[in-house]
Amino acid sequence: MIEARDLVVRYGAATALDGVSLSVRAGEMVALIGANGAGKTTLVNTVCGILRPAAGELATTGRLALVPEGRHLFGPLTVDDNLRLGAWRDRTGRDTGHIYDLLPELVPLRKQAAGRLSGGQQQMVALGRALMARPDVLVIDEMSLGLAPRVVEHLAAHLRERNAEGLAVLLIEQNARLALDLCARAYVLEAGRVVAEGPSAELAGSPEVAAAYLGLES
Amino acid sequence: MGELAQYLVTGVGLGCAYALTGSGLVVIYRVTRVVNFAQGSFAVLAALCVTTVLAAGLPHGVAEGLGVLLAAVVGLLVGLVATGKPGTTPQAALIVTLGLGVFAYAVEILFWGDQPRSFPGLGGAIGGVQIHYLLIIAVTAVVLGAVALLFARTDLGRALTATAADPYAARAVGIDVVRMGLFAFAVGGALGGLAGVLITPVQQVSFDSDVALVVNGFSAAILGNLTRPGLTLAGGLLLGVVSALVGGYLSTAYQSDVALVFMLVVLIARAGRRDVVEAA
Ligand SMILES: Nc1ncnc2c1ncn2[C@@H]1O[C@H](COP(=O)(O)OP(=O)(O)O)[C@@H](O)[C@H]1O
Ligand SMILES: [Mg+2]
């Protein structure tokens, strides 16, 4: 689905990614954790084709959809119009009905302007908009940021369900506990480099990761 | 027909041209955040082109259509030059459109000279009203209605709005934001061209006619913050009618001041409201 090898991405003279390799296979749920400024969003934007790598190889297969950091809904448009545009690439697949089946909490909001919704509602719309593309792999940048725990739990449940149906997920999180809990495998990014990777259980058990990202004293 | 009624009809006709010009500005601004100061040139180029095409023997209707098409293509080119380079800010693009407007003068004088030109519109009159004014009003109503439907009811319109609202998210869902911007420039060009083609039979056109059109069109558009088509139409009609009344009862010398006074009033009213917001 996603196969990145030795990616280098620069903003002018500043190197944001310095030889990052990462893979997400079909049906997998993978976490990418790391502190603010580590380069997570840069990696996401590169994988989605919004940024061009200066070096390295990137191959993606299947359809990829993004839930961007900060939601980035189309504020003046209604929830339903936001959903429709999620399928912009697919002229014939713009019927929104199946999204309301998956995310029934959006039904009462469908005619409301997306910009006026609460953060949790917006994240749900952003998820719906991404699912409209009928993706094979979903990239979610900072799913839980600024949301109440109850809302996060709700979103996580939706993700588990979609993943159980075969959707691959790359989950970017600062909340490492949540990410390691949801995903089987994880990468830890620090200052543009992958400093640790492996099964979530192993990472959670390693003293360095636990100290740096889980707020536990080793 | 009475004098007043005559001025009102003339004013509404003129106002339609302002509204079309202003709507072109709005379409371009909404999608690209660029204020297109070459907007008046679209009207002049289209009208001058029609004089040539008619002289070459093509029939009415076809000639006007070609004029509007030319304006759309020129709009696309202006968009390409002003925004085609990645990373151009809207402010820089605005300066480019200003320069292109001046460049258009050179082209127009070179091909058509500096004397005013005109061509006949729909002949005849009903109850003292030139039928051509009714044509201007009808075409403007239909075209602005169609543009409103495009934005409100079609996925293309939603994508145009999305591009303006959040270019990053637009790209993330696969919308080609540069293409959307160019499309907006082409629509803006066509609307400007239509203004020129419609108004020229009742008001001669020369290379510098763009100034009155763009000043009035811009004034109409800022009534709606450069983003609201309905208010732009209202502003255009108001400006047209007031200009016609001022020209008829006072002096045509004051006509060009109407838009400037109007703009000043809108800006002061808006500044006043901002003060209230800040004080609160
Ligand atoms: N558009 C940009 N221009 C210049 N530097 C940027 C830009 N975006 C991010 N950076 C820098 O790149 C680094 C990685 O940022 P980012 O990918 O947003 O990290 P994260 O998502 O992990 O918080 C940071 O040092 C940040 O300041
Ligand atoms: Mg980030």
TrEMBL record, chain B:
Pfam families: BPD_transp_2 (PF02653)
CDD domains to which the protein is assigned, alphabetical: TM_PBP1_LivH_like
Residue runs in coiled coils: none
One BP term from GO: amino acid transport
Signal peptide stretch: none
Record localization: Cell membrane
Transmembrane parts of this sequence: 6-29, 41-59, 65-82, 94-113, 133-152, 180-199, 231-250
GO-annotated cellular components: plasma membrane
Xref: InterPro entries: ABC_transp_permease, BCAA_transport_permease
An example Gene Ontology molecular-function term: transmembrane transporter activity
Highest taxon of source: Bacteria
Membrane topology type: Multi-pass membrane protein
Keywords: Amino-acid transport, Cell membrane, Membrane, Transmembrane, Transmembrane helix, Transport
Similarity field: Belongs to the binding-protein-dependent transport system permease family. LivHM subfamily.
Name of the protein described by the UniProt record: Branched-chain amino acid ABC transporter permease
